[in-house]
Amino acid sequence: MRVGVLTGGGDCPGLNAVIRAVVRKGVQEYGYDFVGFRDGWRGPLENDTIPLDIRAVRGILPRGGTILGSSRTNPLKSEDGIRRVKDTLAKQEIEALIAIGGEDTLGVAARLSGEYGIRCVGVPKTIDNDLSATDYTFGFDTAVNIATEAIDRLHTTAESHMRVLVVEVMGRHAGWIALHSGLAGGANVILIPEQRFDVDQICAWVESRFKIRYAPIVVVAEGAMPKGGDAVLKDDSLDSFGHVRLSGIGEWLAKEIERRTGKDARTTVLGHVQRGGTPSAFDRWLATRFGLHAIDAVRDQHFGTMVALRGTNIVRVPLADATARLKTVDPSEYEEAKVFFG
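RESULT FIELD:
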């Protein structure tokens, strides 16, 4: 069998571990041939490929990013996109396709599989950890560790200058990174997209910390919004999946805190630092297991499925279910964190 592999959407630590596991087991145990598609769905659209064999995946386990490249290309937006993808798969003699990505990449895979007969298996990838069908996605643990380390470091500089430090982390619709890193890093306020925030209440918490000679840390997800306000956008442009570009809630909030309290407030935007670099041990473990089980699903011809973590087990779920809804922070979990606010 000849199998295609692609990585779509934002890069994250652990992608190379998936590719390595897919190829190693597929070649060694099943005798499959592999073709890598460059830059997500752009590869099948433009027949842009690289060979994937055991030699190609040697040494990539600890590397961040993806050796295949990635993009937010959406073949469903192109008038002849489906035909071009099918033509490429036919030319390359691809019998099955493993798509590694988040909501958008896997949403395309679900439609290609369900409506157009393309034999796809999905692997969940999003540092936001917002796919409902799996307990965790790889990349999330690394992002939380990076954000937590940054918060740890910011505590000392905040205390030295007695200023408010606002830390903006990733999280478009789900606040998992903010919640986990904020709790782990001892933040005094955590703001997430699922719960609109009251600026006056934040300022009250900030001032209460200064009364005990303690400089507060505020962690805010990029998609968090104030009551009665909207998300802060980088610009008005949309990507091929219709997403706006979020950026700036941290800076906006710091200015509001400074204006209302008179306290010096600064912003640190972690941005793509959370995506880059070496994956954590947990993410290497999870990504490797996902890859091993994805190629098993191909062997079993369980197409139209995605591998998922349930407890400590890897299971298969329908692709359509995997992308049906986002996994967001439960209000009860956010309430737990409020014990440490202010």
